[in-house]
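FYI - complex with nicotinamide-adenine-dinucleotide, inputs then prediction.
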Amino acid sequence: MNISVIGAGYVGLVTGACFAELGNHVTCIDVNQTKIDRLRRGILPIYEPGLEALLLSNMHAHRLHFQTTLLETIVDPQVIFIAVGTPSDKDGSADIKFVLEAARNIGTFIKHDCVIVDKSTVPVGMADQVRAIIQTQLAQRGLSIQFDVVSNPEFLREGAAIEDFMRPDRVIIGLASDYAKCTMLDLYLPIMRNPERIYFMSVKDAEMTKYAANAMLATRISFMNEMAMLCDRMGVDIENVRIGIGSDTRIGSAFLYPGCGYGGSCFPKDVRALIKMAEQHEIDPTILRAAEERNDAQKRLLPQKIIRFFGEDLSNICIGVWGLAFKPETDDMREAPSLILLEQLIKRGAHVQAYDPAAMEAARTILPAHWFRSNQLTLVEHQYDALQQADALALVTEWKPFCYPDITVMKNLMRQKIVFDGRNQYNLHHMQEAGFQYFGIGRGLSAPVGFDTTLDTFSC
Ligand SMILES: NC(=O)c1ccc[n+]([C@@H]2O[C@H](COP(=O)([O-])OP(=O)(O)OC[C@H]3O[C@@H](n4cnc5c(N)ncnc54)[C@H](O)[C@@H]3O)[C@@H](O)[C@H]2O)c1
């Protein structure tokens, strides 16, 4: 099939590369000329495991191309994916201007019947707007072209995006015609040999499914973070509670990990957008608001613990930070908890030495230049460099190399042996026995030293 993908970001590039790998001819289109120039030279704008190899092999096989407008596509697409960003607008609603622009471009350039597939996360009813815009453009061009607008929300997880795309546990498709259904089946059957896991529904139902899924996952995290606050006060270890409740099949163990807050390009903005949608329909979104408020507070918790320990003046304090990306296996720092941590520490005069296996370039681009100029923030080349003469380690992202560190090296490098574990990666008692003062999230301030109550299943 001939496919165009509008938007060459995390979703667009993964979609394009994966469909090309399945034998389709794909053109990825992005308004960012620099990004397209670099992609043509095989340089990826993002870090995503497995993506570079997929991209290069399909470029060499002439199945994957990059352009800046739909006009330049070599062959007319039968399917056009919209995968542009939908960031938060000032009031929290989804900013749909990129989707509207993509729709205008489609209406301006298409020459043949096609199926337009929206992969961007968009407010319910967006497909109707996309259809209206394209119809207006076609009318101005005096053309009568048949097209469907389908909603096919994306559920990939950054860091595991190729695997999620190639082996999805479900595909959600909202549509209203048999032609669109046949086209979508043609596209997805190669990766979905069990078509009963392709769920067809109305377009609006599919649009809402994406928001509801993200809001549910965000709420689970915020619920656990609230439980962790209670545990901290009551001398209870949340990690045992997590394992205890996660073993209940009605609850399940996924997304029950307390930490220093969720970030990234999806959960925060999608919860905000859903709150806005509820308000527009005069529904008081109490649960969504609570999930968001808890998360905002959670992002401030790790710096608060550090400030409570060292005091408000951090001018003589050096903090080593492990992890800047919002989660492991990505370089994405959008709304990452590390941003709040750095800001809170640096404004109190601390010196921060930070390391992330993938997000160093992103950090150099998005963090304020004066933090670097004033030498308050140093990005170091190796994870242990961050601990050189550090008064404490703050673990923010649970990358694998951070989960099993060399405790002896840590002890030798650090000025004070203090760990603030924002992801509960370390065994509380092992850390204490190694001479570290350990502060996790909800690990129970009064947990006794010496008697290891931590379950064996949690052993790092
Ligand atoms: N990132 C994720 O993990 C993820 C997962 C599921 C769903 N989503 C959703 O998918 C959508 C895309 O997310 P992303 O993270 O890939 O965004 P992104 O910001 O990484 O990429 C979007 C790209 O679209 C380009 N663009 C904007 N307007 C354009 C236009 N008119 N024509 C061509 N290109 C244009 C931008 O230059 C940018 O490169 C969002 O709605 C997001 O909520 C993202």
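The radius of gyration is 24 Å. Residues 6-12, 29-32, 35, 83-86, 98, 101-102, 105, 119-121, 154, 156, 158, 265-266 surround nicotinamide-adenine-dinucleotide (CB under 6 Å).
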